[in-house]
């Protein structure tokens, strides 16, 4: 060991040993710390507002938000805060499908404010649970078909179908009936055994308030937003969580065509969006899932008044 080279090798080995021990000690201290940080990462319940008349633009924003929440790993559950009379049939259906996809992956609860009527109820029906207040109004499962003004065209046409704005009268009514059946079928399927009324009764488009909505199975229990948030968190297995509020709809994109048409059950801020159904200066039919009767439009078919399924 008197060889200088041997002494340097021995010293180097001792140094490496010390460094290895230090590294192990540091790792032993860091790993539990890292684990504790991971364990305390924030987990969220997201509250998404659906509080306007449903149009293609508002639905697009909401669908995009729901898609983002579905892929966001920090969001464990979602609560829909619904206070809407419904709106466009096509837009309502797109929101229904988005909620259904989300509910297949995460708990989705709904808290109803003033109302979740027609297309807004369609949006909410895939939820795991629906909370209502005693004054909340839910239901009104049906479709309204409207044409602007008096519904008559004085323009010359090049073919018989042109007078029906691209479809025959039979095709028009068949489309409305198909939409109605899809809506009624979704309610019956999604609510399942919780419904205490028949499919025929659902198709009659009744609307129920508070306790009666729970009795009929249109809603699950009386409770406000906080109860819905707590329920969603429990369903996701969260004991500690934060709440994030999302308001995806863009009010400035709406074109309101109608207003209140009376008091009581029929009072509503009914609205319809012309685009994308029309071009400038050209009127066309609207298919609506909305609570109330839009003004400035002639209702040529209201499945809610027809009954049947």
Automatic annotation (TrEMBL):
GO terms for molecular function: serine-type peptidase activity. InterPro entries: ClpP/crotonase-like_dom_sf (IPR029045), Peptidase_S49 (IPR002142), S49_SppA_C (IPR047272). Gene3D superfamilies: 2-enoyl-CoA Hydratase, Chain A, domain 1. Transmembrane segments: none annotated. GO terms for biological process: proteolysis. Belongs to the peptidase S49 family. This is S49 family peptidase. It comes from Haloarcula salina.
